[in-house]
Specification:
The chain is an all-alpha fold. Helices cover 74% and strands 0% of the residues. The chain has one helix and no strands. The longest helix is centred in the middle third of the chain and has 26 residues, at 2-27.
């Protein structure tokens, strides 16, 4: 059970990290709409 959870986390964590990073950078105006 834990192995399945960790494997799922390994797959989804980078996606959520990129999404969170994008939102964060947009919020502090590093990324504008032209990007």
């Amino acid at each position: 059970m834990l192995a399945i959870f960790l494997e799922t986390l390994n797959i989804t964590a980078p996606v959520f990290a990129m999404l969170f990073l994008g939102v964060l950078l947009k919020r502090i105006d590093w990324i504008n709409d032209n990007f």
